[in-house]
Amino acid sequence: MSFAQKSEKKWTEEEDEVLRAAIDSDRQTHLLRRSEGAKINWQKISDCLPGRSNKSCRKRWIHSLDPTLRKGRWTAAEDAVLLDAVAMHGQNWSKVARHVDGRTDDQCAKRWRENLDPGISREPWTPEEDRTLLEALKMHGQKWNTISTLLPGRASVHCRNRYSRLRRARDTVSSQQEGSRASSPSGRSSPTDPSSSYPNNLVRSLFNC
Prior knowledge:
The chain is mostly helical. It is 61% helix and 0% strand. The two termini are 37 Å apart.
């Protein structure tokens, strides 16, 4: 079965409207405040949406439609609350998210893993790490979560970004080499060719180019 077949079908505007109406009705019935989404009867909600499970309805609401949902840049105050919540609950993200108004469990987990986790390395990447990254790519493809486990202190997004930088550097080196060969009668790089500098030599060795 292909990935597309496994993926959930896209929500329609009509389904979104039914979901909003069903949640409003459920809240009015039980006199729930808007912030008490955890008490919504998701099984009852899903009964209004054939083909959608209670988990699917909950995910759609919490991650996309809830008007209290906050998106975009995190504030210093939110980071402080998140740090306190992680200290209290560990990486139980559903509990952590209850302390951070307007942020989902996925948002909290991502913010922690990519920015706030004290285990994240802030040091420049080493040639050894770059080689490990490229070897892991050959073995696992672009499965960044898997690759990050082979690079302590490097989150999956940092591995992906590092590979993008290395690939751009490789393309730059290749362009420089082609330009140098075209301008040199012998077809060889001149002694002043910028590709002879340490960073470019490193890039060539990493990609075996």
